[in-house]
Design brief:
Number of helices: 11
Strand content: under 5%
Shape: globular
Helix content: over 70%
Number of domains: 2
Distance between the termini: 46 Å
Oligomer: single chain
Length: 178
Amino acid sequence: MRADHGVQIDDCQSLFDYARILYELQQYETSRKHLIDLKEILTNESSRHFELVSQVYWGLFACDIQLCKKRENVELTTVRKLKDMVRARYAQNPMYSHQNASWLLNWCLIYSFTAEHTNGMFAALLADRENFGFEFINVIELRSQYLMRHMIAAFLLGRSSYQPNEGNKNLRLSVTQL
């Protein structure tokens, strides 16, 4: 990191702390800008500085929720990275993996039902088994009855612009298997 950018991990932690203060002051766009800069600097540091990198991605997701960013951008960047980090970090500890997947689903639920033009991420993640697997369905089945109710509501309301084509039966399978 020093050779690539000329910064140390303490500098990154200070910038993260500043971005968190900006977020708490409801300056979400500025906070997001600093978190994106940190994400770029810490690209290859997730194995050595997992806590800081995960905090950066959770902070980005919080900013995206507040700013109602488009689902496609959030799903393809922040949510997938968080999912990958949780899987990699907690591969040997299913309890922590399950707990973090539950948190991610809760945040996706908030994002899906509060954003104006981005609704549907919650349903789309559950239907997209190719990228997200059965882990999220397992979280709902084992942990949270209210998530089960919201999942069904998300499917039934059809609030998403995501509509699978006829060849993609993931959505139909997800509803019928529950």
